[in-house]
Design brief:
The protein is an alpha+beta fold. It has ten helices and 27 strands. It has three domains: 95 residues, Beta Barrel (OB fold (Dihydrolipoamide Acetyltransferase, E2P)), CATH 2.40.50; 186 residues, OB fold (Dihydrolipoamide Acetyltransferase, E2P), CATH 2.40.50.100; 221 residues, Chloramphenicol acetyltransferase-like domain (Chloramphenicol Acetyltransferase), CATH 3.30.559. A hairpin with a 6-residue loop joins strand 18 and strand 19. The protein starts with a strand and ends in a 7-residue tail after the last helix. The chain binds oxidized coenzyme A. The site of oxidized coenzyme A has 20 residues, from helix 8, strand 21, helix 9 and strand 24.
Length: 578
Amino acid sequence: MSKELEVKVPDIGSYDGVPVIDLLVKVGDRVEKEASLVTLESDKATMDVPAPEAGIVKSIKLKVGDKVSQGDAVLVLELADEAKAEHSAPKPAAADAAAPSPQPSPKGRGGESPLPLGEAARSAGEGAPSKVAAPSKLAVTIPDVGNYDHIPVIEVFVKDGDVVEKDAPLLTLESDKATMEVPAPEAGTVSGLKIKVGDKVSQGDAICTLETAGTVQGSVAPAAADRSVPPPLATAGSPRGTGGGQGEGSKPAPTPGKPAEAAPASPLPAPSATDTIPYASPGLRKFARELGVNLARVSGSGPRGRITRDDVQSFVKRALSTPTPAAPVSGTSGIPPIPAVDFSQFGSIETKPLARIRKLSAAHLHRAWLNIPHVTQTDEADITELEAFRKSQSEELSAAGGGKLTLLPFIMKAVAKAIQAYPEFASSLSPDGESLIFKQYLHIGFAADTPNGLVVPVVRDVDKKGIVQLAQETGELAKKARDGKLKGEEMRGGCFSISSLGGIGGSHFTPIVNAPEVGILGVSKSSIKPVWDGKAFQPRLLLPLSLSYDHRVIDGAYAARFIVLLGKLLADLRRLAL
Ligand code: CAO
């Protein structure tokens, strides 16, 4: 016949009503001896309650959010065969049978019940002289930590000279099942720190000296029983794991501390500036360490920001799927990352490296898109007369051996004229966002499509040049761009940009502002459309315009006035001469 064992909350020191924050098993689960069953967490400590024996979970007696005390039922285990045999043998007092049994250790045997940290601290001081005195030195030692010896120190929060508050965490100790924090028994200044991360400590080992403000004299710990050194969950006589459990989930240390783990090299959240200690269970900390995850960089989604196993797994997935900090695809600026997809599962694939220009422009466009609140204003300009004029002039120019006269230089000239009327379109926000910088020059860039990607050569002093000269310069710069011969300085200094897709097609689009500029004009393919002249529809050549702007700098009405003026300038070139 199967034998069942009701697992109870073991001795958890002087705590009552400790919240259950995690159920680590479900009914039907097979658990090994000492596997963690539930996690309890107070404001200063976290601990896992382990299985006293291997077995199958038959029923669970508590749920997340319940508050438990020593002796409360956790779950019922159907014991595995070996455990059954063990449990059917003569055993100690019935009261002990259901609670996880302590690990044999000199301290745990013989009925001696080592005290939790707080108790230890209090008892250590009992009987010691206690009186108000001048500033004094208090030797701080590792208190009674249950039946543990040689517990690794995983965090040291103080250094010599630090001033700590009473109860501020000094160290974190961590066994494989529990984490406990050693608090300062009094407020004071730390000196003679003897412990470093990685040391293994036992009760009585010296930590440091505290120069106290002068209210207490004692050799080891606070003397008076009413000194409320926070008692940890760690308890004596409890099994591995039931003991301890301080500090793990403790709130940020008020003193400087450093996460013990190295940060993975990925563009993921940096360790918090305050070096806070993250909330996480002992098992979770171990899991994180095995994966090389610095918990200081993981955001907790559990109650009170507690870090869960899912949080650590998501962090690792992000770290693996984020390419390089130089060209982040996603995952920056707090934006949820796009999950990596193995496309080869759907068919064969070929991976080609991005051209350098494309990588650079990708990073630039990403920055601009993320930083600038974009608005795009559209309109259509009537360029019927302009096109007739352009074509006639283009033929004359070609016949005279000059270059081609395309629409772009006309648009560029009209934009320069419109900017003179609305100069904020050529301004830039100061880096602190406190002022606008107006330029005394008018250089305009134009997007050029090249085999290697997008580049933006800049034509200087557009306001001072004629259309034929602008045509020559744009033609030369466009050729250089396509041949990959543009120099760096030929792509710098622009006040405004034009992106013309008119030679290709399409109607409107939403160009991305070329930061730190604040405006960009998108030009699409012109087409003949019927326009009502008050008496009849007339066939007119309309040019679609898409004006994107930085709404931090430019108001919608200002932009609308700008685009209306631009339309008028393009509709009647004589206005350019005014
Ligand atoms: N409507 C109708 N036709 C147009 C037009 C328009 N808005 N703009 C140009 N055209 C015509 C030209 O008249 C020319 O026709 P012809 O050969 O019959 O004379 C033809 O389209 C090709 O012109 P073009 O594009 O070579 O010359 P351009 O001066 O207008 O443009 C340049 C030069 C460098 C802007 C252009 O070649 C280019 O690279 N455009 C792409 C810009 C781009 O990629 N923008 C997107 C940036 S964001 O991703």
